[in-house]
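Title: Comparing notes on inverse folding

I've been comparing how different people in this forum approach sequence design from structure. To keep things fair, I'm posting one structure and asking everyone to reply with a full sequence. Here's the target:
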């Protein structure tokens, strides 16, 4: 069975019973999510497969799932899309939650040929505050409260790419997407080896060292840390130690998120083909690190990599788009097989092995279906003996 056939088999299982599409918990973060994220991902899977092999079951699934985007549960107060429920965090999941749903709204528009999906995306995009001094968007919570600038670079990038997909150039705020790209060197920190540094540090540090946090929330965080680590040492950690621990954790995250970022960059590139950034040494360096042995080693046993971000799918997509080696197909197959062998359960037809959120990791198969069908048909998944 080739890769396309396996994807079809998985998709048909879920299309036949949409109740199998459940809310996840955002992997290692363990944040309870709403079902909106996985609905968004599955819409794309069904849409892509329906383009290649039109089936009523796919079309019906897309129609049913697409209705949710307009329900009160999706936007309880008529502002941003509702993506998570956890004390002390916004319910929109920053900009990234909005980006996931924008992607799905675009596929609904293409498949169902109804511009109401683009209008919905445009409405949500327009109410996001943009900092024109820095070229970044603020987080918008579901109740309409404008929060800080989203300090996760990947959130900003994915929001920009997904917005470019759904927002017409006639929209007065479309210019903000280009402004984000024009300001990229101000906000993107690339480490010496080409690794994208996870946070936009000047904003993230301000949040980390915040002194205006309500006392009760601070106490709750300390108690949670004590319970998690079974140690009272957290009570005595000073700011310098907190900062050092945080910076070390950001390097681990940076490795786990790098392919996810490059995946979005390559897609974003298609909307601004003539932009000079794509020809910059920095961009080239960021792409080349994907095959660096040290980079690959740092993605092994990284909870933000294969068990969370489907790094195998992401590298495969970038290889197909940006590399022209004679053994390209062999390398693409290698990374996809690695993802399947590490996480896929052939009995359940889900990515339910070695991860903390099988519902979401299975839905992230949507990242793989952006590969051309002729490539998917040429790849065989080799099941390793257990």
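Reply #1:
Here's my take.
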């Amino acid at each position: 069975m080739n890769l396309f056939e396996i994807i079809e088999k998985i998709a048909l299982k879920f299309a036949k019973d949409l109740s199998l599409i459940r809310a996840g918990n955002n992997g290692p973060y363990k944040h309870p999510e709403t079902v909106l994220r996985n609905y968004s991902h599955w819409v794309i899977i069904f849409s892509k497969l329906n383009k290649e092999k039109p089936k009523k079951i796919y079309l019906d699934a897309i129609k049913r799932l697409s209705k949710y985007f307009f329900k009160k549960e999706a936007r309880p107060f008529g502002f941003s899309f509702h993506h998570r429920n956890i004390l002390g965090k916004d319910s929109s999941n920053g900009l990234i939650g909005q980006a996931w749903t924008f992607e799905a709204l675009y596929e609904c528009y293409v498949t169902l040929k109804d511009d109401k999906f683009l209008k919905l995306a445009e409405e949500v995009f327009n109410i996001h505050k943009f900092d024109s001094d820095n070229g970044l968007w603020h987080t918008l919570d579901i109740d309409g409260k404008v929060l800080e600038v989203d300090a996760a670079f990947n959130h900003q990038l994915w929001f920009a790419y997904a917005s470019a997909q759904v927002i017409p150039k006639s929209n007065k705020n479309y210019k903000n997407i280009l402004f984000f790209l024009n300001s990229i060197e101000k906000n993107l920190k690339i480490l010496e080896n080409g690794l994208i540094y996870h946070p936009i540090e000047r904003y993230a540090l301000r949040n980390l060292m915040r002194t205006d946090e309500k006392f009760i929330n601070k106490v709750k965080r300390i108690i949670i840390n004590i319970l998690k680590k079974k140690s009272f040492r957290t009570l005595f950690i000073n700011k310098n130690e907190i900062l050092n621990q945080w910076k070390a954790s950001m390097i681990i995250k940076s490795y786990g998120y790098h392919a996810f970022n490059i995946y979005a960059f390559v897609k974003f590139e298609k909307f601004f083909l003539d932009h000079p950034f794509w020809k910059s040494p920095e961009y080239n360096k960021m792409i080349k690190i994907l095959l660096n042995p040290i980079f690959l080693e740092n993605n092994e046993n990284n909870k933000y990599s294969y068990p969370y971000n489907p790094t195998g799918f992401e590298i495969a997509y970038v290889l197909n788009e940006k590399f022209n080696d004679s053994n390209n197909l062999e390398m693409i197959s290698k990374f996809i097989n690695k993802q399947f062998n590490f996480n896929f359960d052939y009995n359940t037809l889900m990515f339910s092995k070695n991860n903390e959120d099988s519902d979401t990791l299975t839905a992230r198969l949507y990242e793989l279906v952006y590969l051309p069908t002729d490539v998917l048909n040429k790849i065989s998944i080799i099941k390793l003996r257990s």
